[in-house]
Specification:
This protein is an alpha+beta fold. It has two domains: 456 residues, paralog of FGE (formylglycine-generating enzyme), CATH 3.90.1580.10; 53 residues, no CATH class. It has ten helices and 18 strands. The strands form seven sheets. A four-stranded antiparallel beta sheet has the order 1-4-18-5. A hairpin with a 5-residue loop joins strand 12 and strand 13.
């Protein structure tokens, strides 16, 4: 009898627990209304996964505090990397640089969707092409690399170079759309558009994540037949079944947490934190020692018995010595080498020191203002919002409303692509009475502008007559402007004092053409965002949503 009572009690407790658990997920604990139920307005609540899904090709970087900047002796005395305490939120980063093969997929996609022979799209494909002529040397025989490095299969797994900061960001945007399009096709929401007979996947039929989330039926010329089935939605009693071939369920929203977060370039702080990988120097909640490179130790050569003496990174060892002597190459390559050719750091990231340097998102300034923000520091924020037309609808760009930007080298690049949402900068009305930001573009905030000078209390007109702190060259006219006034590209004759501007970007890490000094993750250099070299590549990052970590840490103290 006791056993029977015991069993009944266990069953009742189990049912109650299950009911409470179900209620907590499907019913509002504050109103009693049911989520995702047509009888209660079908208000949405997405299901959060207990275990985060790591994006393909990436590794999880658990956030924490670290000392950003050079912790070794500053032998150059430039005070460009003074130490600062920073905190980084958890994020994801590519385990290796983007390769020639991966970038070539982006090139092929762009060429097929926006064919350059079509006058409407003639500037799009050339804007994403790498500059293969970065391999040329006036006194060197390097034409083989100019002709083969990007497309020859022998170099397919080598990091792509000749990429400007602008082009790296274009790839990140495309990758976001490509990944989310794949998710929607895999879930059956969208039919395979590459095999569709009813849709020409060209121009404004280009898939855009923001456009889909704003209104799915603004894509694909309003062709609703491209959509097959959405997330299941219970039908109301007496509601008729949908006709065969009709879209069933509902479209995926941001609240469902199914689509991938936006891919982007890592910030300088994120890149340095990931490269230093201080997790291997941790003892409980303390950091022991200082790291000079992405690996542990003070030397560039391996200590392992099998590879003793071999270099741990691909870099220039001395003048005229890129890889050692014949028959005993110490780093395996005299140019960039295949990704993952060296051991990863403690986070699982490859080539954070050596091979190629990498673009990061930040606008360059000689100093980093840690007092402004010591949580996820980043300089270059430009706040925007979706443009809404007079009908209250989100504006989608077509071939007639495309806008172009002229880069500092005179090349033309599209600001946006057909089929994408048009964004505009936030206005004074949007920032009115805010205490966290007051303008859209914050690239030069507190660094050379009026508020950070001794003229902070002067009239803005008077301040504009003083010499600019960052007196960078003017932007040349593109061919569209030349047609209007007949001017041509030329060098600005005025004497310049600096190359630093709001369009100057940071790149981090040493490369195959650098000496060991630049392998230190704390080192930082800069280049205009429109320029490219044969030693700068990039990798992508994306944000981690939800808990900082899924790992359970040990209790702080034993139970007494």
């Amino acid at each position: 009898m006791k056993n029977v009572l015991k069993s009944v009690v266990i069953v009742i407790i189990g049912i109650t627990f299950t009911h409470c658990k179900t209620n907590s997920n499907s019913t509002s604990s504050l109103t009693g209304w049911k989520f995702n139920d047509p009888s209660y307005g079908n208000y949405l609540k997405g299901k959060s996964s207990k275990k985060a899904t790591i994006p393909m090709g990436m590794v999880a970087i658990e956030g924490g505090t670290f000392t950003m900047g050079q912790v070794q002796d500053d032998v150059m005395f430039d005070w460009n990397t003074t130490p600062k305490k920073m905190h980084i939120r958890s994020f994801y980063m590519d385990e290796a640089e983007v390769t020639n093969a991966e970038y070539s997929m982006f090139l092929q996609y762009t060429k097929s969707v926006f064919p350059p022979e079509d006058p409407k799209y003639k500037h799009i494909y050339p804007s994403v092409l790498p500059d293969t002529l970065v391999w040329r040397k006036a006194l060197g025989n390097t034409e083989l690399l100019s002709e083969n490095y990007l497309r020859h299969p022998a170099y397919s797994d080598y990091p792509v170079v000749g990429i400007s900061w602008v082009q790296a960001n274009q790839y990140c945007k495309w990758r976001t759309n490509a990944v989310n399009l794949s998710i929607l096709m895999d879930k059956g929401v969208i039919e395979n558009i590459f095999e569709s007979d009813s849709l020409s996947f060209r121009g404004k039929n280009n898939f855009d994540t923001d456009a889909y989330l704003s209104n799915p039926y603004t894509l694909f010329e309003g062709d609703s037949t491209i959509y097959k089935k959405g997330l299941a939605v219970p039908r109301r009693k007496g509601q008729a079944k949908p006709s065969k071939g009709d879209f069933t369920g509902r479209h995926i929203t941001a609240s469902d947490g199914i689509l991938a977060q936006k891919f982007r370039l890592p910030t300088e702080a994120e890149w340095e934190y990931a490269a230093k990988s201080l997790i291997e120097n941790r003892e409980y909640n303390n950091i022991r020692g200082r790291k000079k490179y992405a690996w542990s130790g003070k030397y560039t050569r391996s200590k392992s018995k099998k590879y003793r003496g071999d270099q741990l990174a691909n870099y220039k060892q001395s003048k005229g010595n890129y890889s050692g002597i014949s028959g005993w190459s110490s780093d395996g390559s005299d140019i960039p080498i295949k990704i993952k050719s060296y051991p990863p750091n403690a986070f699982g990231l490859y080539d954070m020191s050596g091979n190629v340097a990498e673009w990061v998102a930040d606008v360059y300034r000689p100093s980093i203002d840690a007092n402004a923000n010591d949580l996820n520091y980043f300089r270059g924020t430009d706040f925007t919002k979706k443009m809404i037309n007079e009908k209250g609808q989100v504006v989608i760009i077509d071939e007639n409303s495309m806008e172009y930007d002229t880069l500092g080298n005179g090349k033309i690049t599209p600001k946006n692509l057909p089929g994408s949402v048009k964004f505009t900068s936030v206005t004074k009305d949007d920032t009115y009475m805010r205490n966290n930001y007051s303008r859209a573009d914050n690239s030069n905030l507190n660094d050379g502008d009026q508020n950070s000078s001794r003229f902070y209390n002067s009239d803005a007109f008077d301040f504009s007559k003083d010499p600019a702190m960052y007196n960078s060259p003017k932007t040349p006219k593109n061919e569209l402007d030349q047609a209007k006034d007949g001017s041509s590209k030329e060098y600005d004759p005025r004497k310049r004092t600096t190359l630093i501007s709001d369009n100057t970007r940071v790149y981090k890490g040493g490369s195959w053409t650098d000496r060991a000094y630049w392998l230190d993750p704390a080192q930082r250099r800069y280049l205009p965002e429109f320029m490219s070299t044969n030693y700068i590549g990039f990798r992508c990052a994306t944000d981690n949503v939800g808990p900082m970590t899924s790992q359970k840490k040990r209790p702080r103290s034993k139970k007494r």
